[in-house]
Amino acid sequence: MPPQGLLCARGDAIPCGAMTALVTHRLYGRPCTAGDSGHIAALLGDHAVRRWVLPAGREWSAARAGALARALDAHWQAHGWGPRLWFADGALVGLAGLRFAVIGGEGAVEVTLAVAADRQGLGFGRELMGAVMAEAPQISSRVRAAVLEGNRRSAALLASLGFRPVGRLCEAGQPCAVLEWVAR
Description:
It is a single chain. This protein has one domain: Aminopeptidase (3-Layer(aba) Sandwich). The chain contains 5 helices and 10 strands; from the N terminus they run E-E-E-E-H-H-H-E-E-E-H-E-H-E-E. Helix 1 crosses helix 3. The longest helix is centred in the middle third of the chain and has 18 residues. The chain is globular, with a radius of gyration of 15 Å.
């Protein structure tokens, strides 16, 4: 059940007060916590999702899921915002939000996005990213994304939200496009 203090109109998420949970037409997003390693393991344990999120050759394990859950929780604790786990009718849909990162050697606010394989192509990515980007101006005037080459779905989704190419880099030997969104 979504917490009180959030409004949902026309499918747009509107946070009220502190940045915690967001609600859209079909989704409920809440901050990641240290106890979410099971959700993260389920999402990124699926090769169809992980191949676009982690560079090739990086091992995946329950320990890595736990470390990521703790890191995302720490980000929320330190900054009051960060990536959320997103659910529809109680089932995990994905992980998405903004967080501090280093992209191409520079500090940035980066978008994090991963949608469960069985939920891809159903508009959930667009819906949750619409909610994420609606709150972006409260966090930063610029948001970056590093998209692995070949990830056409993510690149197209981000372009539709106003992200534009600003460079390229290699992450663990894999080429990435660097995209940037600038608040207007």
